[in-house]
Design goal:
The complex is a heterodimer. Chain A is α/β, with parallel strands linked by helices. In chain A, 55% of the residues lie in helices and 14% in strands. Chain A has a five-stranded parallel β-sheet with strand order 2-1-3-4-5, sandwiched between helices. Chain B folds into four domains: 121 residues, no CATH class; 102 residues, 2-Layer Sandwich (Beta-Lactamase), CATH 3.30.450.20; 92 residues, Helix Hairpins (Orthogonal Bundle), CATH 1.10.287; 153 residues, Histidine kinase-like ATPase, C-terminal domain (Heat Shock Protein 90, 2-Layer Sandwich), CATH 3.30.565. Classes of the chains: A alpha/beta, B alpha+beta.
Amino acid sequence: MTLEPSNATPKQTAFIVDDDHSVCESLCDLIDSAGMSTQHYPSAEAFLDAWTPDMAGCLVLDVRLPGMSGIKLQGILAEAGLSIPIIIMTAHGDVPMVRKAMKAGAVEFLTKPFQDDELLQAIEQAFSRDRDLRAAKTLENSILGRLGTLTPRERQVMKLVTTGMTNKEIADTLDLKLVTVKLYRGQVMEKMQAHSLADLVKMSERIKMP
Amino acid sequence: MGANPNRISKWLIVFVAKPLSIAVFFVFVALLWTFPLQHVIAYPFVFLFFGAIMCSAWFGGYTAGSMAVVLSSIVVTFFFVPPLYSMTIAREFRSYVAAFALCAMAIAMVSSSRRRSETAVKIARDQLEIRVQERTAELQRSNLEITGRERQLRLLTEAIPQQIWQADADGRVQYCNGNLVEYMGINPNELRDDVLFTFLHPEDTTPFFQSWEAARRVNGKFEVQARVRGGNDAYRWFLIRSNPQLAENGDVVCWYGVHIDVEDQRRAQQELIVAQDDLARLSRTLSMAEMAASIAHELNQPLTALVTDAHACRRWLNVQPANMERAIASSERIVRESTRASEVVSRIRSLFSKSAYVREATDINHLIEDLARLLRDEALRHDVSIRLRLSRDVPPLMVDPVQIQQVILNLATNGMEAMAKTTRMRELEISSVILRAREVVVTVRDSGAGLAQEARAKAFDPFFTTKPDGTGMGLAICRSIIEAHDGRIWFEALECGTAFHFSLGVNE
């Protein structure tokens, strides 16, 4: 169970938003039978009210809801930069709506009624995506943290190194001695905990270093 | 006195010249005839003078008579009484002359008075004749007038495109106009007393006699609709109206009646009701077609729950060891959802079916909630959020739930369409509230463009529409449905948007 040793991953839950109480109950029961935890809300507004940043898992969202629609909720979440994976449920998937939902980042589009595997697989997929997203976020944070320890000069050298310049070229560009460049480069590799140049390049790509 | 010379000369002509000339003329004629005669008759012959006096008095009146008497006396004395040709009278002739004068005076008086009375009689007779003629002419004129008026009246009763009859106090028919006779297809000479009653439709005789009896009790008018058989043995609906003619003492002298053919009106009315019914169903079907997707959703919800429950149930049974408790709970939900699905199906069927007059205790809030679910797709399409504000104190109402749902559906669809172009928040609010524990008011409020001024007065008129593809029947049907429920429907122009309200009475 401790595949990801990183303690940052909280328990994942499937958050169901459907105004039909029976449907909610059934979905909870099914997901429960697969050993996953669930919570359900009767409307988009109710979900937004209950939302906190540490809610991990995925959203199982009905399109037709009283008040705010599912698609609208998806839009609001995306706008706020809350990247929780979303599974959309609908009675009839009309094409523009599917396109809109998928474009907005829905993991899966389920047409009611659906098979248990369809849902459970979709949830598992969503959970793993959530995990990935969270792991990526954690990694990004640590890289950014390490980047913060570099001096401006070291940062300059790192940027040029990751663009593929040789030490000589860097020395010319920055008008430094070759020895000094080599020194800076060693400090960057150490501070960024990079084992190789490839490692360093990956890191800079991940954080889209300016 | 003599101020006017004309009058004096007129007086002279009438009272002196004319009688004098008449007297002179006749006396002279008598004198001319007496001269030759005195040679035949020895005795002085004076009788012709009596004739002259009589004639003078007759033609010239009393004055001329008197003048003729004087003249005759002078002439007789001068020419025929000895001594001849002198005015002296011999002694032995004095009595003779006196007798002559007396006789002459008497004749003059008698003759003139006789003449006068004769003239008076003649004048009276003439006057009488004139009067008689005048009266005769008058009578003839009024006779003509009366017959003319009678003819006009007859023409009127015959020309009026209505059937008219007159019956005595007991309902025995005395007169039927041509239209009625022609309609019933009978010979005008065969009019039997009870002709009117035998031509009534058997089903309508009772109401007819009831209303007639009621009218007879108070000697008032009556009005009843009944079918009357025509000459072709087909019945048509007539509005039968009758007024009694009352005598001085208030008794009925006779009844005047008119039959107005209302067959076409009744048929049109019935056709209208049928058409309206069809239209209502059509519009319902049309909006339903638009919402087929909603129905699919409606049915899909319990099906989704059902399928999910079935899967869950299987999974609870498949784990080792089987979780019987959870499996049973899942299977119970399966039963519940199946029932719900079949309820949805029957509700949809009732929505489409042509149902007759229905009044059943209905929870209006439940109706609205139901409808709001159906409308969700439509709302999504219009980017409208539906808000319900339902008072929980609303009691069940005796209504036709399908029809009332139809009204709310129409109002809600209108509201959503009204918001199509607005840039404001698109919110449709459906609310229910109870007023004074007597009526429930349902309001459908939109935040749309509102009704144009000229549309306000005609909003509920049939065939009035502001939509390019509208039938103009939506609100008209709403109104007829609400009115059939003894309710009211009205609208209120808000600052932004419109609120349609309808009220339904709470039955005790």
